[in-house]
Design a protein that fits this description.
heterodimer, A: 267 residues, mainly alpha, 12 helices, globular, B: 315 residues, alpha/beta, Rossmann fold, Alpha-Beta Plaits, four-stranded antiparallel beta sheet, 10 helices
Amino acid sequence: MTGLTFRLELRRSRMVAFWMAVIVLAYGGIIAAMYPILQENATALEDYMKIFPEGLMAAFGMTGSLVDPGVFFGTYIGSMLWPVVAAIAAIILATRPIASDVERGWADVALGTPLTRGHLLAAAIASQALVLALLALATVAGVLVVGRLVGADFDVWRFAAAAVVMWLFGCAVAGVTSLLGAVTLSRGIAGGVAAGILILMYLLNVVAQIQVELAWLGDFGAFKYLVTTELIDAGVMPWASVGLFATVAIAGWGASLAVFRRRDLLA
Amino acid sequence: MPDAIELRGLTRWYGKRRGVLDLDVAVHEGEVFGFLGPNGAGKTTTIRMLLGLIRPSAGTATIWGLDAWREAPELHRRLACLGSDPGYLGGLTAAQTLDYLGALRGLPAGSWRALAERLELDPGVAVKKLSRGNRQKVGVVQAFMGAEPLLVMDEPSTGLDPLMQREFLAMVAEARAAGRTVFLSSHNLTEVERACDRVAIIREGRLVKVATVAALLGDHTRSINLVLDRPAEDGTFDLPGVTVLSSTGQDVHVMVRGDVNPLLRRLAGLEVRDIAISTPDVEDLFFRYYEGTVAGSEGRAADPPGAGTALEVSR
């Protein structure tokens, strides 16, 4: 029963997954294709970057030379593309099984069968996790494959490990959004609040990087922990980030299950 | 006959807004039970509580002795349902929708085909491209495609054309013949009259009458339509047992309970152009309850929780 619903949820996610994958593959591929140009002009590029404040550079992931694969990836993907893609995909996917389906009446139809609320949501959560994993892999694959084709020395396993961190970040967003959906039963409110929180955290992270005396603000945002630079450049797995994102994801999804099982489904 | 459904003091508030108040209803196994009322009367609220989608504020809803909220998944193994305006996924075809819902109920793929043909439903069309009536057919097929002993349906024939409504009534009759219990809400009075063994009339969230259709129709009442040469004077029909249902001057529709002679004597003094006397149908009775003309059923504002009700409910 859960497997059947899982397959249906995957089917419903296929357009989001396809178009997001096209975007990340294309963007990642184009960025990776430019990597040799950055390598060839490393000195000139670094001279140019010196005109910007260090804090501003750090806010956007540029904490070293753009020629370093980790800094390169963190700047163009980890701090820019993935937060946007993960947020959009997670919000679309996580507001659907409860909030959107209650609003449209599909939850009533599905729950009018022996399918339990727990199984319905568990199937949806599993499909969210899988789609986000595919998107994280596609994001890394676009950079990695094109990078290799143009001669970049990208380490496959370190990039794969970066995909795991990115995936867990997406799962954390989905978990919290799922909980918001279960509490509000409104796709608009849940999606809006989740997006608002993410934008706020992004801004806090930028301010924290630019203003040293406000660095503590960064502790309240998820983006401080979405770090892949050291992982790719030095092979250091950010276990704290992994643990934090995994905990938030599991807690969010678990709480949404608990809330959904007790919730009046008021269309 | 044991009860399939039992509502005891069932009450639901949406904040300060009334849903239903203090409903007491027992639906016997094997009967077709109609739940009659206009939009906003509380029919859908009652059915959503029966299906375990919302919790009662007070009272209980049980199906075969199991609590409809706590035991919902277990109960859904033994009932099939059709909600009002079901929100099917637009991207799926009717066939995919029915196969999915059938599989959740343990039915083999395609077990809906005979019913779809009977209702002239094209199963290959995406639900988003179906008309309102055809989407409703998907719902009817979904409800009837299994063999669950209880069918719960919320305004099931809404949007169906007259031919399909007739087919729907035939399907209800077959379900009853097979020993299944049917609980359906409707504001289609003809449908209720034709399909149901017993009827509950709900008004502003309160139950005002539960009776067999036969008892309702045979309640010694007559529906009389009069066409007068000129409008009757005020008070002409102020007679014991006579209720004016509508009057537009010369056209008068009255309901007479009990002895008709006082009315006939009064009519003898008027110039009557035409008269039609009939046994009332459910529609007349329904409006009678809704006009507040039955002793004890006058309209009243919804009381707050705990205020109770003095309404007499016949069972």
